[in-house]
Design a protein that fits this description.
- Helix 4 crosses helix 5 and helix 7 runs antiparallel to helix 8.
- This protein has three domains: 160 residues, HUPs (Rossmann fold, 3-Layer(aba) Sandwich), CATH 3.40.50.620; 111 residues, no CATH class; 219 residues, Alpha-Beta Complex (Isoleucyl-tRNA Synthetase, domain 2).
- It has 556 residues and is of the alpha+beta class.
- The protein contains 13 helices and 23 strands.
- Strands 12, 13, 14, 15, 16, 17 and 20 form a seven-stranded mixed β-sheet that branches. The protein has a four-stranded antiparallel β-sheet with strand order 10-9-11-21.
- The chain binds zinc ion (ZN).
- The site of zinc ion (ZN) has 7 residues, from loops.
- Zinc ion binds next to loops.
- Its EC number is 6.1.1.4.
- This is leucine--tRNA ligase.
- InterPro entries: aa-tRNA-synth_I_CS (IPR001412), aa-tRNA-synth_Ia (IPR002300), Leu-tRNA-ligase (IPR002302), Leu_tRNA-synth_edit (IPR025709), Rossmann-like_a/b/a_fold (IPR014729), Val/Leu/Ile-tRNA-synth_edit (IPR009008).
């Protein structure tokens, strides 16, 4: 038998493949039995055809569907075999046969060992390919998906696998995605699902967000082939970073059981780094003319540069920014405009009501007690270049020794001098005087930590090697209750907004007065509207005007 295998998931076509096992002689047991009962010459030894055997048993299993069902009343020990549900792309390919043969072997083995085996099959039937196919063919994505499922189901049945079809499910059916929506709302209530502007991979042809895995090495889209752009968009995330320490810790239990290189890949993905969490006191001016104090926690791996801090910057997702933008219309406009800013923007918004104090400058009295914070003179900005969700969503800006901080400083405070605090070993210029630096006249200095030392701008720490200074500065701040050791992880929250239309509707209503409001449980599922997909720009949901303009769950 020759199959043309084509995977619509990747859009690639693989060469014709001859299924080798269909050319083998049938196993002896079957041959003997068949030879014994044969009546025609065709049924003599060696002349039995697999398709005939297939047809006989497929018909038998079709007539008695209970053969492979897993009754919930069974007293046998239960065993669950679950393979990944296929995406209904149109036809099965060799990859499907391979994976489902493996799970079928396990299911049959466990069945023969006396287990009540549940081996279900279903369809991972939401996704962009269905939407694209629907646009190309001018059909409803649901219709296209259902047709494909019928074709693939027939093929899967011909494979003769031991699936319990009475448990079949498809993720695009409202019965199923009602559950998806319930789970989403549970995560939302726990703060594990949230919405934030994020820099995403944007496919200008498909008009959709792409996962990193969908961007080819040459920077083009895996499907459309278009050059992928970077763009800020409001996106939904799952807060998987909350589990980063647990994930990292759990890897230890796999050592010696999993291949080393797999564990290393996981370690790199989680990407743990060690640094310090430093508290910067804040003074916030209130509307009535008074002021109050607060503190900002900042993660840094370069505490040795703390004397060079000239500003603090908050990500747009920082809780303080969200709080201030409720009363500061200009700030809200800045945040709202971020999606329109170019990639790598150094734009900043100065929070004029907030000033910060550098905790290393706090002085002590003669008896060793700490004096109150002195000059609150550090400006605090909101800056899109600070990543939300990483560490503390806030950075200490050291323009002299960090390129990104310098670029931001130059953009927002071009006339202000830069204060250098670290000097490379052997350098003649100790760079003590602050100076106005421009990228054409001078380069900033990103110091390596081992071969540099602190200059005279660092008080009692001047002359110390950066590594030693780092340890001493941390000890001092820790004693004052202003620093703690901290871990940070490279793992990012999981961006889930990917489909334009053919996906589970997110059950949140955006209300002009209440903000984001979860749909009530009894109103689930939120059904996808029926619309015609044109593939022309923007969200297809714009067409469904009645669906988009709904009532706020809080007002009914
Ligand atoms: Zn409302």
């Amino acid at each position: 038998m020759i199959l043309q295998t084509r995977c619509l998931c990747s859009g690639r076509s693989s060469p014709r493949i001859v299924l080798p096992f269909l050319r083998l002689r049938p196993p002896p047991l079957v041959l003997l039995r068949k030879a014994h009962t044969s009546k025609t010459s065709k049924r003599q030894y060696g002349e039995i055809t697999i398709p005939e055997i297939d047809a006989k048993w497929l018909a038998r299993w079709e007539d008695t569907p209970r053969t492979f069902q897993s009754p919930s009343t069974s007293t046998k020990p239960p065993y669950y075999v679950l393979s990944m549900f296929p995406y209904p792309s149109g036809t099965l390919h060799m990859g499907h046969l391979r994976v489902y043969t493996i799970s079928d072997v396990v299911a049959r083995y466990k069945h023969m060992k006396g287990f009540n085996v549940l081996h279900p099959m279903g369809w991972d039937s939401f996704g962009l390919p269905a939407e694209n196919a629907a646009i190309e063919r001018g059909v409803d994505p649901a219709e296209w998906t259902d047709q494909n499922i019928e074709t693939m189901k027939t093929q899967l049945k011909r494979m003769g696998a031991r699936f319990d079809w009475s448990r079949e499910l498809r993720t695009s059916s409202p019965d199923f995605y009602s559950g998806t929506q319930k789970l989403f709302l549970e995560l939302y209530k726990e703060g594990l699902a949230y919405r934030a502007p994020a820099l995403v991979n944007w496919d200008p042809v498909d008009q959709t967000v792409l996962a990193n895995e969908q961007v080819a090495k040459d920077g083009t889209s895996w499907r459309s082939g278009a050059k992928v752009e970077q763009k800020y968009l409001e996106q939904w995330f799952f807060k998987i970073t909350r589990n980063a320490p647990f994930l990292r810790h759990s890897l230890e239990s796999l050592r010696g059981k999993w291949p080393d290189h797999v564990i290393r890949q996981q370690e790199n993905w989680i990407g743990e780094s060690s640094g310090s969490r430093v508290k910067f006191p804040l003074r916030i001016a209130d509307a009535d003319g008074s002021s109050h104090e607060d503190a900002l926690k900042i993660y840094t791996t370069r505490l040795d540069t703390i004397f060079g801090v000239q500003f603090l910057a908050l990500s747009v997702t920082h809780p303080l920014v969200q709080k201030f933008s409720e009363t500061d219309a200009e700030l809200k406009a800045f945040v709202d405009n971020i999606p329109n800013l170019p990639v790598g923007t150094k734009a900043g918004y100065l929070l004029s009501n907030v000033k910060a104090f550098n905790p290393i400058l706090q002085e002590t009295a003669e008896d060793g007690t700490l004096l109150p914070a002195g000059n609150f003179d550090l400006p605090v900005f909101v800056a899109p270049y600070v990543l939300g969700g990483l560490g503390t969503s806030a950075v200490m800006g050291v323009p002299a020794h960090d390129q990104r901080d310098f670029d931001f400083w130059q953009e927002n405070c071009p006339e202000q001098p830069v204060r250098f605090v670290i000097v490379q070993q052997g350098a003649k210029d100790r760079m003590v005087e602050p100076r106005v630096v421009t990228s054409t006249t001078n380069k900033i200095f990103a110091p390596g930590i081992t071969k540099s030392f602190l200059n005279e701008n660092c008080g009692q720490y001047a002359g110390l090697n950066c590594v030693v200074a780092h340890q001493q500065l941390f000890a001092t701040l820790k004693e004052r209750g202003m620093a703690l050791p901290s871990k940070r992880f490279r793992i990012r929250d999981w961006l889930i907004s990917r489909q334009r239309f053919w996906g589970t509707p997110i059950p949140i209503v955006h209300c002009g007065s209440c903000g984001s409001v979860p749909v009530k449980d009894e109103d689930l599922p939120v059904l996808l509207p029926k619309i015609t997909l044109t593939g022309k720009g923007g969200s297809p949901l714009k067409q469904a005007k009645e669906w988009v303009k709904t009532t706020c769950p809080k007002s009914v």
